[in-house]
From TrEMBL:
Domain of life: Bacteria
Membrane-crossing residue ranges in chain numbering: none
UniProt-recorded name of the protein: Stringent starvation protein B
GO cellular component, one term: ribosome
Gene Ontology biological process terms, A to Z: positive regulation of protein catabolic process
Pfam families associated with the record: SspB
């Protein structure tokens, strides 16, 4: 299967964006289950949830603002207990996206593949030598 090739970028962010768009277009409430144990240094959630194994977020337009599902990270603003928080985590930490109303979900482990570390394309400094 081509997903296991090391040079193929992960498909997960594309599947996540497509499902989200489908859910919102059909007036469903998209919910995502997020693993909080992997990539801990790249996760920003309210402090009271930091030690949980996972969390479920309502990412509908009514529940969160400034949602951005990028190729590497998910970012949005939400309120917890009346307090505003900026939420940030790697796309690869999303385990499932599901609609609250119809319980139709899409597990993200169908799309294996890790983030590909981008190659450093900056020009190398020239090395001078005596002639």
């Amino acid at each position: 299967m081509f997903f296991n090739k090391p040079d193929v970028p992960p498909f997960t962010p594309y599947a996540l964006r497509a499902y989200y768009e489908w859910a919102v277009d059909n007036s469903y409430t998209p919910m995502i289950q997020v693993d909080l144990q992997s990539n801990k240094d790249e996760i920003n959630v309210p402090a009271k949830f930091e030690n949980d194994k996972e969390i479920v977020f309502n990412i509908s337009p009514e529940a969160c603002g400034n949602l951005e599902i990028g190729n590497e990270y998910v970012d949005f603003d939400a309120r917890f207990g009346g307090q505003a928080h900026h939420i940030h985590f790697p796309v690869e930490n999303v385990k499932l996206i599901v609609c609250r109303e119809c319980q139709f979900g899409l597990p993200m482990d169908l799309f294996p593949g890790k983030r590909i570390k981008k190659k450093d394309t900056r020009p190398k400094k020239p090395v001078f030598s005596e002639v």
